[in-house]
Amino acid sequence: MGASDPEVAPWAPGGAAGMAGAGAGAGARGGAPAGVEARARDPPPAHRAHPRHPRPAAQPSARRMDGGAGGPGSGDNAPTTEALFVALGAGVTALSHPLLYVKLLIQVGHEPMPPTLGTNVLGRKVLYLPSFFTYAKYIVQVDGKIGLFRGLSPRLMSNALSTVTRGSMKKVFPPDEMEQVSNKDDMKTSLKKVVKETSYEMMMQCVSRMLAHPLHVISMRCMVQFVGREAKYSGVLSSIGKIFKEEGLLGFFVGLIPHLLGDVVFLWGCNLLAHFINAYLVDDRFSQALAIRSYTKFVMGIAVSMLTYPFLLVGDLMAVNNCGLQAGLPPYSPVFKSWIHCWKYLSVQGQLFRGSSLLFRRVSSGSCIAME
User: What is the pTM (predicted TM-score) of this model?
Assistant: First the structure.
């Protein structure tokens, strides 16, 4: 999940709240996902001007509040605003880390506790795997409470780099003013605006994802060391040296392609669905039309993140596959030739959504889990 957080939630500002998507829905998308670090952007303000009612001349642009000209993100306030976003993102990342940690261990197929017998809503007896809380309690028993934050340092660095990158890109390539659409007559014009806005978001997300991905890979490998009790990846600098020595430069970007594809599919799916719903299904005569429109993209982000979860799963599995850790080798996982090979394998096993649920986890007939 991953993981806002660039791996779980590209829909959160700066990718800071990844799990609220990648991971859990990811999360997130994880999330949220989890990537969830959670994937829809924050809903626009409900008071945004209606196309039929011109915006007052003195009204500042809401789109410029994060670093564009005229907002508090410009001039002398820019460093302060950027530091605030980084600090907030770090707090959210730290709080959501245990969730993404458990999700990743489930994604790689690590099930240290046997399933328990229970009943479903129809009264039938089924086997349930441990929930997030049971799994987290087990980690605390093995590693202590601090063990829930294994791999947090590179995640914090990854999210901070993503936030700074997006902020810098907004300064260099400031977004154009986008007006909200409210009726079918504006459909053709508004669709062009949505395409333009989504293309801009996609550019920022892809660049920030590529720059932060090496740290994401290190974080994933630090966490899955719990499976084999290894200590190969102990710090960011030493991990960089090991990866470069053993796998070369490409080793820092394993799993990048499925993550990028997931981000692109998510952004276009979320924005286009929200646009068509707002334009065709929400009637201007309804008194709460503006309020509904302001949350449409948020709701669509949650729904689309669930559909794009397989991209997050495949990307995370490729990040740890065949890297010398037990979690990336049989019996947990075969050695994949490519991310497409990984996708096909999970599809045949019926495991493309493995780890997407952390509360009610039934043992399916296609489960391929490795027990201790």
Answer: 0.74
